[in-house]
Amino acid sequence: MTRFEELLEGKVAGELSPDENQEFSALLVVAENRRAFATHQQTVALLAGVERYVPSSSFTEEVLARLPDRRSRPLRNVWDLLWATRVMRWNVATALALSLVLVVTALTWKALSGRTPVGSERHSIVTLFRFSLDAPGAQQVSLAGDFNGWRTDEILLADVTGRGHFAVTLSLKPGRYAYMFVVDGATWMTDPRAEAYRDDGFGNKNALVNVEVPTVADGDT
Amino acid sequence: MATRRCVGIAALVVMAFGVPFVSQASAQEPVKPGELSRTLEAANLSPEGKALLRAKGIEVVRAGVAEGEVAGLIQRGVARGIQPAELVSLLDVVARAKRQDLPVGPVLDKVKEGLAKRVPAVRIAGVASRLSGELATSRDLVRRAERDGIRVEAAGERQRATEAVADALGKGVPPEEMEKLSRQVARSGARATMSRLEVGTQVTADLVSMGLSPREASETVGAALVRGLSRRDIEGLRERLGQAMKRGESAEAGATQLREDIRSERPEKADKLEKMEKPEKMEKPEKPPKVERPGR
Lengths: 221, 296
Hints:
heterodimer; A: alpha+beta; Immunoglobulin-like; 2 domains; 7 helices; B: mainly alpha
């Protein structure tokens, strides 16, 4: 800062002593100093016309109150905790242990999801159907249908009277099933007492059984 | 920064759901790996025959049919002495059905039935193909029914209805009659459900097999549907027609009488019964099971 600038600052502030005032007046001989002084005077006059804002006594408190309170944002803290960059140290043993935990979890989940709850079996729909056929002289009668993939060696009927009255009781899920009897492993026979029939497309007639809600059972036993 | 966070979120989601999903998926997979290979290794076939069946088997499994089912069909076919080329034609029918997104269960059952009854493979393939065609027609009809407002309320209803309609078509009920029946169900407001279409279709097919013409059968069932009779009452139409026929009436006369009776019946009783028949309530029977005889 030059001497003239120091004196100019004091002049504008009205703080110059008489000696300094004389010195300042002397320096005004220089045209450049006069221009600087004139510019400063214009600025002072301009500022004098501006209304001065006086803040209230609670201004500082009000500003602070409007600032976001970082302490009352637990979610933000959790978010920052989750996404803060960290350096993870690992080794093969830790990785193997983690893999083991994942495998055990998967196997446990599989075992649990594959197991039928004890109670559900008791409450599942169980409709027992008795299939019977009079086949005097037959050695063996079996039952094949949609319910067992048409396997002829799976469901054997018992000769309950010893006089050729073959019967078996099956538990079936609700649905509609086509079936036939197989006598002595070779002869396919349609149930003569079925509730409905359907051509099998191969020249025979399948019997149909309609399994409904267990409470509607009213057939013979 | 945002991309890194997105990747992080995706990783967290995969970690949270990945393990249970993978383990559950493996728990639901009933197929034993290598079942097809083991069946073919054990089969008494020429290497060419095995190769032919292996290629076709893999193709069918890739189409979405369970490997166990494919292996089972091959095993039965070989046991029945069916030639590999004929077995391939049977597997082709199953694969085509699966690719068309049809319920493949009835097609598989029909092939198994044919093999069990020792029917020639060519005939089995023909019958199974016809069944596939009926299932395709039936699937389209059921889709239209859904678009017309018939609601599917429980899992599996759509498939059961599709199979029931296919069965009816197989019994000679023309598609137009099925469409008519479907429209009658669709117009029944709150009762416009897929299970009612299924039962209506089943009973129509049964009445046809009892000797009624398809038109008379669908009109009789349609009258019951429009009247709002319960599922059980609709199923009871078979027995009522049977009783009329036992009394010596013709099927047509019995059906005419049935329709007159239906028009005079009160649907209020049906509402109560309908509520009891909801599948959710059927899951927990309170009474012990009774024994039924399929015949009358």
